[in-house]
Design goal:
heterodimer, A: 261 residues, mainly alpha, Arp2/3 complex 21 kDa subunit ARPC3, two-stranded antiparallel sheet, 9 helices, B: 104 residues, 3 helices, extended
C-alpha cells in the first residue's frame, strides 16, 4: 500500500549511488531538501521546465526594471536571505519525513510575484554549491518554488483581499495563499515526477504521494506567512503592499513615462 | 540609523538565529520527495557535484562550526547578491514622481 510505504520510517532509504553513499556516510545531517535532484526527471521534462522558467525570468526582470520600487530592494534582499536561512531548519512531519518553509508566499505577497520569482531564483542558485537541487532540475525547481510557489499564493491573497480588505482578510488570504501555494508546488513537482519516464508508477501515484505530506507542510507555511505579515503590519506597515486601513496602498512605482537607457 | 538599515540588521539577526537552529537542532532532512524517490526506485545520478555538500566542507565531516560559518556566510552572500542584482535592475529607470499606484 502506498500509504503504508509513505508511513514507513526514514531508515527505508538506502544509498543507491556513490554520491548518495558519500553524502550519507560523511554528511549524516543529509542535504536532501524539497528540491528536485538531477536524475529524478526525464530530460525532456527538465528541458521544458528550463525553457518555461527562463521565459518567466525574462518577464520578471523586465517587470522589475520597469515597476519595482527601488525602496523595496532592502526588504527583498533581507527576506531572501532570511528564507535562505529558514530553509536550513527542517522540522519533522509524518512518517519520519521532514520539511522546511519555502518562503515564496511571503515574498510574493510583500514584493509581488515577479520580484518573488527573482528572489527565489537567486536563492536556488546560491543553494546549488551546497547540494540543494541540481543543474538539469534547476528549471523545475524554479518552476515549482519560484513560479507556482509565488504566483498562486499571490493570486489567492489578492482574491481574498479583494473580497475582504481588512485585517481578517489579510490573515485569511495569507494563510490560504501559504497553504495552497505549497500544496500546488508539491502537486506540480509530483506531476513532473509522474510524467517523467524515470518514475515507473504514473502521475496519479506521484501526485498523491507528494500532496499527502505537503498538505501538512502547507498548514505550517500558511501559519508562518500570517505571522510574518502580522509582524510586518505591526512594525513596518509601510512595507506591506496592502494595508487594512488603506486599501491597495501599494508601494510599487508606476511605469516610468520615459525610459532611461 | 535609518529604517532600511534597521530592517536589514533585524532580518540578518533573525537569519543567523535560523541558521543556528537549523544547524544545531533541526538539521536532519528526510524530505517527502527523496523518500518517494527511494521508495519507487527512481534513478539517482548526478551531473552536478556540489563543492560544499550538506553545507559542509569536504574532509571535515560533520563539523558543526564549519556548517555554522558556511550557513551564515551564504546567508550574507544571498543578501549581498540579491541587493546587488536588484540595485542593477532598478537603477536603470528614473523614479516616477507620481508616487505609489496599485498592487504589484
Amino acid at each position: 500500500m502506498l500509504s503504508e510505504k509513505l508511513a514507513a520510517p526514514a531508515q527505508s532509504g538506502k544509498p543507491k549511488s556513490e554520491y548518495e553513499y558519500h553524502i550519507q556516510k560523511y554528511y549524516p545531517r543529509a542535504a536532501l531538501k524539497m528540491h528536485l535532484r538531477d536524475g529524478y526527471l526525464s530530460l525532456i521534462v527538465s528541458v521544458a521546465l528550463w525553457i518555461v522558467a527562463l521565459a518567466f525570468l525574462v518577464v520578471a526582470f523586465w517587470r522589475a526594471n520597469r515597476r519595482l520600487d527601488e525602496k523595496r530592494v532592502p526588504l527583498m534582499a533581507t527576506l531572501t536571505a532570511m528564507f535562505f536561512a529558514v530553509q536550513m531548519v527542517n522540522y519533522p512531519i509524518i512518517g519520519g519525513t521532514t520539511a522546511h518553509l519555502l518562503g515564496g508566499p511571503v515574498l510574493a505577497i510583500t514584493l509581488g510575484p515577479f520580484a518573488a520569482l527573482i528572489a527565489m531564483t537567486i536563492l536556488l542558485t546560491i543553494q546549488l554549491p551546497l547540494g540543494d537541487g541540481g543543474i538539469l532540475s534547476f528549471g523545475a525547481n524554479v518552476f515549482n518554488m519560484g513560479i507556482v510557489g509565488t504566483f498562486i499564493p499571490f493570486a489567492i491573497f489578492a482574491a481574498v483581499w479583494k473580497l475582504a480588505p481588512s485585517r481578517s482578510g489579510m490573515i485569511a488570504g495569507g494563510f490560504l495563499g501559504g497553504f495552497l501555494g505549497d500544496l500546488c508546488a508539491a502537486i506540480t513537482a509530483g506531476l513532473e515526477l509522474g510524467f517523467s519516464s524515470t518514475f515507473p508508477y504514473g502521475p496519479v501515484i506521484a501526485l498523491l504521494a507528494m500532496a499527502l505530506n505537503h498538505s501538512v507542510i502547507g498548514v505550517v507555511e500558511g501559519v508562518a506567512t500570517v505571522m510574518i505579515l502580522l509582524a510586518l503590519l505591526r512594525m513596518r506597515p509601510d512595507l506591506l503592499p496592502v494595508q487594512p486601513e488603506a486599501r491597495f496602498a501599494a508601494h510599487e512605482l508606476p511605469a516610468p513615462t520615459k525610459e532611461v537607457a | 540609523m535609518d529604517k532600511e538599515s534597521k530592517l536589514v540588521i533585524v532580518g540578518l539577526i533573525a537569519a543567523v538565529v535560523f541558521v543556528v537552529v537549523g544547524v544545531v537542532a533541526l538539521g536532519f532532512a528526510n524530505e517527502t520527495l527523496d523518500v518517494i524517490a527511494r521508495l519507487f526506485g527512481m534513478p539517482d545520478w548526478e551531473v552536478w557535484f556540489p563543492p560544499l555538500p550538506d553545507c559542509g566542507i569536504p574532509g571535515l565531516g560533520q563539523n558543526v562550526i564549519a556548517t555554522l560559518f558556511l550557513g551564515v556566510g551564504f546567508t550574507v552572500l544571498v543578501l549581498v547578491v540579491t541587493f546587488a542584482v536588484m540595485r542593477l535592475v532598478t537603477r536603470r529607470r528614473k523614479p516616477s514622481a507620481e508616487g505609489p499606484s496599485k498592487m504589484p
